[in-house]
């Protein structure tokens, strides 16, 4: 008989609650959970297609091990034997930094991806860490680290209470939100306008979000930081700076006017292609609103001045008194955060503690730029050993990093590679061992990362909706065994990994004066933990030690895993609340408004005042039915608007002699690709747009649907040389390209091939 089961959707940052229909161990339907405390029944096409993705026949069902050059199915024991035999000799001969670790975006969508990669990093002791952050949001981490002392202290807009929202480089009607976890983001924006609020969107494309807005500013790509700087300048020039209750928590406010003196509205107008009067209006409206929030996303991050743009977003929220204020931008408080420490000076945030070997890129947040991965493998220097072995967890950098062709060749040269991935894709096809996690219905779910970015404090946990199929291994066990295999403990019981974390965490917690368990016996505390396995015991521990926890009995009404399991639709913990100065970990204990690395980068922004693109510039775009390169193998999520086409303005199409639907060649510094042209006035003149995550045309993959309509890899247009210097983030937007039509005969051939 069919039954239902609850599941939190892991397919984007919105984290919506789902009600799954299960029949004979298979998900046959998915709808929104109307009783979910956070999403209240909202669902998008990705969530509705949960069953199709879960049952994708191209998902690997057993490990693969390379034998005589070919990947063959193997047992789990054989696979982990091969991992230990491949990684340990590299560490012992060349040192830990010769082993690279690449973490992809899906890690933050799983329980296993939150709990075990930190142990992999620590166990290996490698500095060769690369993640999807440096092709996405690293500038925001760096600006938050410099301002607040904590790279993960990212304020989010209080969507449900704000009167004025300024969105920059964000398209949440397609992305469902990012660095701002908000189920039904579209509904929240409509509610903002319905209650008389104002929505302004700054974007070179007239996106679905821009069409909803009161005002759309079609800024020139890559100039967001200039626009924001001019708005801040206006606030000072017109005596509109009102930090209000924030004033005691600020350091450097008096130095900002001089730092921003050159960025007048008139000075930035030509560079941004936004007239000075409009810049002043944006600043005045922000200052005049009863409450307001500035929110910027990937379009402002993946540009040459991404960190400065992220910094200026929070500067504007500070100058208008809207940081840490209801209706402004606040710091969420997740249930699994450690017990909040008392307010006061912290260690601060440092950049460049080590550097990459080849181009000497500084680390940021412990990571090196993903754009540098290929050269760190294929280039010898006197600075140490190149990367000779690689562990990739839920990562497909051949498609997500610049110059995939070079990385493709570099991966083929590795001594050893292990990939944790459900698919044989463009990256995992190079692995010597592939460890496939089970489908999401067979895994538990709790949003460790996204609850730290949620627009409302809440907590939810769902156990697997479907038991593990015979021959499958839980992703938590896969990663625990991987930790053991690469750290010289191969063959030990994987439960020892979780037990060590519990023992270490509790031993530290009892020494902290602010902890609810200060002075208690850690063994006694460990005996109180509940859960059916190690990961659940760790979750129970984190909940109990967290800001809403029971403190192992100190607060009988506090959170525990048992209490959470008794509330299958989640527990609402209330709206976001002001928290300053507690979240601050800067050396001063204050918001440091003009940190030295920011001040040192401002001359580069001043130089941009005189820069103008000589031709077309490229920007990316997102689709509602896609998330990076994950979902192009699911027929229900491709086609329609989710196609790999090049958007270009009618004026540019006429000038270039391009017809709608005609195949065009796009050329950049890293190479060239072809794609069908889609002529549309949704992009401003001088701008072309190609979506991210496509290019499924390499041999040796096993993604039949994606390969049948591969699209073009936009990142192949980039050579990896353009980075935001503070964060190491790849510049993926506002890059120059050339576009030319192909002949009718070539266009016909291209269509036949695809």
From TrEMBL:
The keyword Iron-sulfur appears for this protein: yes
CDD domains: MopB_CT_1
Occurrences of domain 4Fe-4S Mo/W bis-MGD-type (ranges): 2-58
Keywords: 4Fe-4S, Iron, Iron-sulfur, Metal-binding, Oxidoreductase
Name of a matching Pfam family: Molybdop_Fe4S4
GO MF terms, alphabetically ordered: 4 iron, 4 sulfur cluster binding; metal ion binding; molybdopterin cofactor binding; oxidoreductase activity
Keyword Metal-binding set for record: yes
Gene Ontology CC terms, in alphabetical order: membrane
Protein name stated in the entry: Anaerobic selenocysteine-containing dehydrogenase
């Amino acid at each position: 008989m069919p039954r239902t089961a609850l599941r939190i959707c892991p397919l984007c940052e919105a984290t919506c609650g789902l009600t799954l229909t299960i029949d004979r161990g298979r998900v046959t339907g998915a709808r929104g959970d109307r009783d979910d405390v956070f999403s209240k029944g909202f669902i998008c096409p990705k969530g509705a297609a949960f069953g199709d993705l879960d049952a994708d026949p191209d998902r690997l069902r057993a490990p693969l091990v390379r034998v005589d050059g070919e990947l063959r199915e193997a047992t789990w024991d054989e696979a982990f034997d091969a991992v230990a035999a491949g990684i340990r000799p590299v560490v012992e001969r060349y040192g830990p930094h010769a082993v690279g670790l690449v973490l992809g975006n899906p890690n933050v969508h799983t329980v296993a991806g939150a709990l075990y990669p930190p142990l992999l990093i620590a166990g290996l002791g490698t500095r060769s860490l690369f993640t999807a952050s440096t092709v996405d949001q690293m500038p925001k981490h760096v600006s938050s680290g410099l301002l607040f002392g904590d790279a993960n202290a990212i304020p989010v807009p209080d969507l449900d209470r704000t009167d004025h929202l300024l969105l920059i480089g964000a398209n949440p009607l397609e992305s469902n939100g990012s660095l701002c976890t908000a189920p039904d983001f579209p509904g929240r924006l409509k509610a903002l306008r319905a209650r008389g609020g104002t929505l302004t969107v700054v974007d070179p494309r007239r996106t679905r979000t821009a069409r909803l807005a009161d005002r759309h500013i079609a800024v020139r790509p890559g100039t967001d930081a200039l626009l924001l700087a001019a708005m801040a300048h206006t606030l000072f020039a017109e005596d509109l700076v009102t930090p209000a209750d924030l004033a005691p928590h600020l350091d450097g406010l008096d130095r900002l006017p001089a730092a921003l003196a050159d960025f007048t509205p008139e000075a930035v107008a030509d560079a941004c292609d936004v007239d000075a009067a409009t810049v002043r209006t944006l600043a005045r409206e922000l200052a005049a609103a009863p409450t307001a929030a500035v929110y910027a996303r990937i379009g402002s991050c993946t540009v040459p001045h991404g960190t400065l743009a992220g910094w200026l977003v929070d500067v504007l929220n500070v100058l208008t008194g809207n940081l840490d204020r209801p209706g402004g931008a606040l710091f969420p408080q997740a249930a699994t955060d450690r017990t909040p420490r008392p307010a006061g000076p912290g260690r601060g945030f440092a950049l460049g503690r080590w550097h990459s070997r080849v181009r000497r890129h500084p680390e940021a947040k412990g990571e090196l730029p993903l754009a540098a991965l290929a050269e760190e493998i294929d280039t010898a220097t006197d600075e140490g050993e190149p990367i000779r072995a690689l562990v990739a967890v839920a990562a497909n950098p051949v498609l997500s990093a610049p110059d995939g062709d070079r990385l493709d060749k570099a991966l083929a040269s590795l001594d050893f590679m292990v990939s944790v991935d459900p698919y044989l894709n463009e990256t995992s096809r190079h692995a010597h061992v592939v460890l496939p996690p089970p489908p999401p219905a067979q895994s538990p779910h709790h949003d460790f990362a996204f609850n730290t970015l949620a627009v409302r404090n809440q907590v939810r946990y769902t156990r697997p909706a479907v038991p593990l199929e015979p021959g499958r291994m839980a992703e938590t066990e896969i990663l625990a065994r991987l930790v053991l295999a690469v750290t010289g403990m191969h063959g030990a019981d994987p439960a020892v990994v979780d037990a060590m974390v519990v023992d270490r965490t509790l031993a530290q917690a009892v020494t902290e004066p602010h902890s609810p368990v200060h002075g208690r016996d850690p063994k006694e505390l460990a005996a109180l933990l509940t859960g059916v396995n190690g990961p659940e015991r760790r979750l129970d521990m984190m909940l109990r030690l967290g800001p809403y926890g029971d403190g192992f009995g100190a607060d009988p009404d506090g959170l525990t895993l048992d209490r959470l399991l008794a509330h299958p639709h989640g527990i609402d913990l209330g709206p976001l609340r002001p928290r300053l100065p507690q979240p601050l970990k800067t050396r001063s204990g204050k918001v440091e408004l003009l940190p030295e690395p920011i001040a040192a980068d401002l001359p580069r922004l001043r130089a941009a005042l005189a820069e103008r693109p000589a031709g077309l510039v490229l920007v990316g775009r997102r689709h509602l039915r896609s998330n990076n390169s994950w979902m192009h193998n699911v027929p229900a999520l491709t086609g329609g608007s989710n196609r790999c086409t090049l958007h270009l303005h009618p004026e540019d199409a006429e000038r270039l002699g391009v017809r709608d639907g005609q195949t065009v060649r796009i050329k950049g510094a890293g190479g060239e690709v072809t794609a069908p042209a889609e002529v549309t006035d949704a992009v401003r003149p001088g701008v072309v747009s190609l979506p991210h995550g496509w290019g499924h045309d390499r041999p040796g993959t096993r993604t039949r649907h994606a390969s049948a309509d591969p699209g073009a890899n936009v990142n192949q247009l980039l050579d990896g040389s353009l980075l935001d210097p503070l964060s190491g983030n790849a510049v993926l937007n506002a890059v120059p390209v050339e576009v030319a039509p192909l002949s009718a005969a070539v266009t016909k051939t291209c269509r036949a091939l695809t």
